[in-house]
Amino acid sequence: MKSIIEHIRLLNCTWKQIFFSYFLLIAGSIAWTPIFSQQELAPEIILLGIAQDGGYPHIGCERMCCNLAHDSDTASTFVVSIALIDPKVKKWWLFEATPDMTEQLQLFKELTDGKYPYLPAGIFITHAHMGHYTGLMELGREALGAKGVHVHVLPIMADYLSSNGPWSQLVQLKNISLIEEKFDSAAVLSASIKVIPIQVPHRDEFSETSGYKIITSGLNYLFVPDIDKWSKWNRGLANELNDVDVAFIDGTFLSITELPFRNINTIPHPLISETMELLENEADSIKNRVVFIHFNHTNKLMWDRISQEELLERGYRLGKQGNRY
Questions:
Q1: Rounded CA gap, 150 and 189, in Å?
Q2: Rounded CA separation 241/219 (Å)
């Protein structure tokens, strides 16, 4: 009789242990799920292009740099553009409407498995140079015939688009809806994202030039694809790098000898060597925030592995089309 009672007690104890273990497993799952979900739903940026306005390969170039791209299906790259994604609201925003916009919209769709609308919730334009806004034509009557796509621009750029064809037709036919932004004033895109236009010194023939500081619930970003010289910028590159996690910045030229047949002073950009010299005394953690983009077709970083490795060894990053940040 005693052994039967002990057996029953042992059985009850075993069931209690099983129940308690199961409770801990469920409780642990509940505790960890929100944390995992928050990481999954953090905003991110995808690089949709890394080339300077003329693209890579470049029109009319018959030198080795562009022959490499002509001879390879994978070497060519699109003009600089980024996609900003907010998974929580299932929306995304495009920065720059490049001449490659048609292909870049398709690239975005493929990289995100078609989880987001084909068209972005808005397009942010930095300035009126050909690689940064001419893709807007694809939204017009002769192409997509879009309806009311929000295009975020600064005041002079808004006036330029409204007053000059064929862009003015996009406005008149309501293919696009201009959203006028102000420098240093945040555009709130969602509960997780705000975008702050910041003024950048550049060749302003038709519009002002903007960079963008992108503040999210995850990482903070800087987007400055074009600037004349860092010394002309009253904000200071190092100061701006201290405020962000990732900075996509002008890497147009690696060497001043890249364009021997042109006066490089007429197309001012900071040489990458100048940028690295400027940041020489900064901590490695600051240097590693820099992602160089906007490469001219003559820039060895587009194809030369040794140059690429030297840049990485110095603590900087090289923008790659399709990379996520």
A1: 12
A2: 13
Q: In the prediction, which pLDDT does 123 show?
A: 98
Dihedral angle sign, alpha carbons of residues 107, 202, 236, 187: negative
CA dist., res. 284 & res. 294, Å (int): 23
What residue segments make up the domains of the chain, in order of their start? 42-318
Q: Which residues of 126-161 are buried (b: 16+ CB within 10 A; e: fewer)?
A: bbbbebbbbbbbbbbeeebebeebbbbbbeebbebb
d(CA 256, CA 260): 8
Whether the CB-CB separation of 220 and 243 falls below 8 Å is answered with yes
CATH class label, 42-318: alpha beta
**Percentage of the residues of the chain whose pLDDT score is greater than 70:** 85
More confident residue, 27 or 210: 210
pLDDT (average), residues 91-120 = 98
Give the mean model confidence (pLDDT) for residues 285-291. 97
